[in-house]
Amino acid sequence: MQDNYVIMTDDNCDLPYEFYSHNHIAMIKMPYCIDDNVYYGGDMTLTEFYKLIREGKRSTTMALNAEEIKAVMEEHVKEGKDVLYLAFSSGLSATYESGVKAAEELSIKYPGRKIKTVDSLCASMGEGLFLFMANRKKQEGASFDELADWAVNNRLKVAHYVMADDLMHLHRGGRVSKASAIAGSMLGVKPIIHVNNEGKLIPIDKIRGKKQALKALVDKVEEAVGGTKPDYFMVSHSDCMDDAKYVAALMNERFGIEDYMIHFIGPVIGSHTGAGTVALFAMAEHR
Predict the structure, then answer these.
(1) Is the pTM of this model over 0.85?
(2) Does 210 share its domain with 269?
(3) Which residue of 65, 67, 196, 247 is surrounded by the most CB atoms within 10 Å?
(4) Is 140 in the same domain as 78?
(5) How far apart are the C-alpha atoms of 197 and 183, rounded to whole Å?
(6) Is the dihedral of CA 88, 89, 91, 92 positive or negative?
């Protein structure tokens, strides 16, 4: 394994924090705000966070600035390490642009080091899966340049499919009209959303009934993977573990994959999705 460089990311990957420390990945926490109080990952449990969301609390988010990112990068550069930052999608946040600025400034200060920011164009455990696969490549011996090239060439092969359950939360966030939210809730309609090649969240379908909508996530992944078969997948959820397990069981039944990860959608992404959301991620031929 290459140990002359560090992979860096942000906690919008929605992976367990132990994953970063166990794999020696530098991670920076993203902020969110409730009742004018700024929080970071770990400041409250995810169960507590979603309890507040279900009670109608509004959580807002903000991008990281270049100085915050630079501070984390520099810790490792000072130790003689190169840094490859796999950043949250530029289609959803200005964090990537801040990462580019931080890398440029540190490259001038430390001309002998390689410091690079790559736009993952991914979100939630889609970003997490992208990181997981990148870390696998690093453990297999990929150099800094080889991994940076791999990241750019494979980021659009991470399929993201999301079922949103709380239409009223989406309405409060300005994502659907009140009339659509009320009508959809009464009819049990669940929007299916994906992250497109620009790294933006785009509605692509409406399915009536939760079980059918969860099955649709697996159907969409099957279309995206084409003739390939993923050997690993991830499922994220906003405090609805049973629904996440149901999707995992469908994936196991459909593809025979027994190796996967389920974890919470973190507070930053959860601020926008609300409670009851389930998302499925797999490496595919296309998004």
Answers:
(1) yes
(2) yes
(3) 247
(4) yes
(5) 30
(6) negative
